[in-house]
Amino acid sequence: MLNYRLTRLARYRLVGQIQSLLANVALVTLASMYSMPAAYGQSSSLGGFEDSVCPDNAYAVFHQCALEAAKTAEPPRTPGGRPDFSGNWLRRAWAFEDFEAHPKNPDDFGGPSAIVDPVDGKYPLQPWAIEINQKNIDAYVHQNAACFLSGPAGTMYMTSRFTFLQDDQHLVMIGEQLNPHPSRIIPVDGRPHIGDISLWNGDSRGHWDGNTLVIESPNHNAKYFLDQRGRFITDEARIVERMTWIDNNTIHYSATFDDPNVFTRPLTIAFAFRRNTIDEGEIWEEACFETNGDPMNLYRSAGKKVYSGMSGVEARELKAVWEASQ
Amino acid sequence: MKIKGFLEHTIIGLLIAIASMSMALGHHSVAASFDMSQEIIVSGTVKSIEWINPHARVFLDVTSSENESEVWTAWLSGANMLLRRGWGSNDLPIGAVITVDGFRARNGSNEMYGGKIRLPDGRTLFSGVSPDER
Asked: Which residues sit opposite B101 in a β-bridge?
């Protein structure tokens, strides 16, 4: 039997009318928590940002608006003439919970699908990988709980607040919470990739496509899930991020994942970075490691392990086994 | 009578908790280690606090329904996030009697993920990501 002491409120012997009222409140709240909206075009949890040419944060709505707005955007420039993303920003995305549309509940903020391509918002998983995906959910805890990084794109939607610093050789993205040391230094001066290396956030290099910064990050280790639903890629996945200045308060961000080992076709997510106008935007230390051994014990006692990743070779072997069993 | 009282209190407590916990709490899946179907409310005296990242913790001296002394741990958001939500470590002084709404650890230990704390002076402190930062 549970033997904890209940709250002072709970100890009161409330009259039947109050109990009935509470029950009604609870039922209404439950209904709103667990029922999906009829259409996912809008998300109250994502909200909007009024002072923007593309105010709606709902991924697909924002994406389409931003693609159009980018055609006439006039960004501030670095001394070398490149669009300047410098400043303090907040990402508007709950993609780390679930790439696909998902309801608000006590564990999730919920929202529409962050996947803007395919347009149905569905994760284009090959049949053999569906079973692996489910095993991931059952067996592993999200890498963030173990203070591990989330990959080049995952860093951008795990972390809420960023400071971007830029010159004509680099874009430096310094994040704070929700990820351990999620800083990225992206050379944008045309230098080659590092090459023979395996990194959590990959071997990122940026180049310019007009006013859009395109970041390619090969040599990532794929030891991370894309979301808290166990969705995975292999270390052979091509990850291409695109950042476009839309207006003084808005950056259009997208990430395309192309992994023929796992997907039936590439998928793209997109969301907004909004200028941080809620506070001074200062980035504070948020060391992830202190006492993290205790929550890890909780995960282990719940039967969870830390995901160890999947290589392209392993994926092809698993796929062959699955196909032979069909 | 004891069981009846317990159930009555539990039901009322759960209803209050459900009505007030319609918010996501964490950056990683809290549900991996805390049972989101076991919404509980625990009252106790602040024994000690750890005001750190990535998760602050409050340790409570609690008297169980069987009149036994227990220590409960309430996990909260990290100190940065709590500070940005208006919390300070002095808001939870040692010896204060507080009430924590949250979710119990799946392993059945006396640990919970706290989403809301009610203070003796009537203030309510929330854990989780600030609405402004979502």
From this structure: B41, B116
From the CA of A57, how many Å to the nearest CA of chain B? 11
- Interface check for A291 against chain B (CB to CB < 8 A): the answer is yes
Q: What is the pLDDT of residue A50?
A: 87
| pLDDT profile of chain A (326 residues), mean per 10 | 38 37 37 31 68 96 98 97 97 94 88 97 96 94 89 93 96 81 90 96 97 98 96 98 98 98 98 93 86 82 91 98 95
> Given this model, what pLDDT does residue B1 score?
30
- Contact of A181 with chain B, judged by CB distance below 8 Å, is answered with no
> DSSP secondary-structure letter at B17?
H
Q: What residues of B are in contact with residue A279 (Cβ under 8 Å)?
A: 84
Tell me the nearest-neighbour CA distance from B95 into chain A, angstroms: 17
Q: How confident is the model at residue B130 (pLDDT cuts 50, 70, 90)?
A: low
> Which of B107, B84, B133, B95 is closest to A304 using CA atoms?
B107
The predicted model scores a pTM of 0.83
Spell out which residues of chain A touch residue B6, defining contact as CB-CB under 8 Å.
Answer: 1
CB pairs < 8 Å spanning A and B: 183
Measured between beta carbons, the chain B residues lying within 8 angstroms of A161 are 133
How far apart (Å, rounded) are the C-alpha atoms in residues A311 and A221? 8
Nearest-Cα distance to chain B for A194, in Å, is: 31
Number of neighbouring beta carbons within 10 Å of residue A235: 21
DSSP for A19-37, please give it: HHHHHHHHHHHHHHHHPPP
Contacts of A97 in chain B (CB under 8 A): 24, 29
Task: Tell me how far apart the alpha carbons of residues A38 and B5 are, in angstroms, rounded to a whole number.
Answer: 41
Contact A277, A123 (CB under 8 A): no
- Select the highest-mean-pLDDT range: A159-168, A207-216, B32-41, B105-114: A207-216
Angstrom CA distances, A230 to A199, A206, A226, A296, B7, stand at 20, 28, 7, 18, 37
Chain A residues inside the 8 Å CB shell of B81: 177
C-alpha span between A250 and A172 (Å, rounded) = 18
Q: CB B65 to CB A298 under 8 A? A: no
Q: Give me the interface pTM, i.e. the ipTM.
A: 0.76
Q: In this complex, is the C-beta atom of A298 within 8 Å of any C-beta atom belonging to chain B?
A: yes
Asked if A107 and B30 count as a contact pair (C-beta separation under 8 A), the reply is: yes
Residue B66, min C-alpha distance to chain A (Å): 7
User: How many other CB atoms are there within 10 angstroms of residue A101's CB atom?
Assistant: 19
Do you know the residue count of chain A?
A: 326
